[in-house]
Amino acid sequence: MTKSEIDSTLPLPFLKNGIAQIAILVDDLEKAVENYWFLCGIGPWHIYTYAKPLVKEMSYHGHPAEYEMRIALSQIGSMRIELIEAKEGNSIYKDFIEEHGYGVHHLGILVEDMDNALAQARSAGFNIIQDGSGFGLDGDGHYAYLETERPLGVTLELIQRPRARVKPEKIYPQDAETL
Questions:
Q1: pLDDT band at residue 176, thresholds of 50, 70 and 90?
Q2: Cα–Cα nearest to 144, from 179, 113, 99, 114
Q3: Under 8 Å CB-to-CB from 102, ≥6 apart: which residues?
Q4: Which of 8, 82, 133, 161 has the fewest C-beta atoms lying within 10 Å of its C-beta?
Q5: What is the chain's mean pLDDT, rounded?
Q6: Hey, where are the domains in the chain?
Q7: Closest Cα partner for 67 from 94, 88, 37?
Q8: CA–CA separation, 11 vs 102, rounded Å?
Q9: Is the dihedral of CA 7, 8, 11, 13 positive or negative?
Q10: What kind of architecture, by CATH, is found in domain 14-172?
Q11: How far is Cα 83 from Cα 170, in angstroms, rounded to an integer?
Q12: What pTM was computed for the model?
């Protein structure tokens, strides 16, 4: 079988687009951002708090939820790196920290049609363990985490980026250009 023949039979065809993001859980977001900037030269960082009302709809293990996390986003070449500090409420981040400690949490995959991608994931037997939507300027944007840690060794996040993001709470360093 050729690669294209295999790709056409995969239950998760959105994976062929590759990984767009690596996310790391950190204890202290401000300190982690400084460390990545001063030790690795990675930045600038755009910092947001993801919670209601910014994230309009949230779920955790299939039930409506309210959780809060602070995130920092930066680029390393074509790859986005996301640092996450778990704050309030039950979340897969807190679950992971309790089980594994801090470190690489998930890989993000960009999708153009979240409903279609979620249908494909469900058909392949992967449940949604947490999601959130409505964080873009126009109320768009959706992320959904799949229960893939056991079979794949890492959680996969499907990301339908918003057309436009809200202004970050902070950019580090302050004089850096925007993403």
A1: low
A2: 114
A3: 24, 25, 26, 27
A4: 8
A5: 92
A6: 14-172
A7: 88
A8: 31
A9: positive
A10: Roll (3.10)
A11: 14
A12: 0.90
CB 39 within 8 A of CB 54: no
Cα–Cα–Cα angle for 84, 66, 108, rounded to 5 degrees = 40
Q: How far apart are CA 11 and CA 13, in angstroms?
A: 6
For residue 85, the cross-strand partners are 70
66-106 confidence digits (pLDDT tens)? 999 999 999 999 999 999 999 999 999 999 999 999 999 99
In the three-class reduction of DSSP (H, G, I as helix; E, B as strand; rest coil), residue 52 is classed as coil
* Residue given tokens 């009302």 in the structure block: 53
Place of tokens 């229960």: 147
CB burial of 3-37 (b: ≥16 within 10 Å; e: otherwise) equals eeeeeeeeebebbeeeebbbbbbbeebbebbeebb
Q: Rounded distance, CA 67 to CA 50, Å?
A: 8
Total Cβ atoms within 10 A of residue 84:
22
Strands 79-86 and 21-25: parallel
- Give the tens place of pLDDT for each residue, 17-48: 789 999 999 999 999 999 999 999 999 999 99
Place of tokens 């309790």: 98
Evaluated on CA atoms 93, 154, 36, 163, the torsion sign reads negative
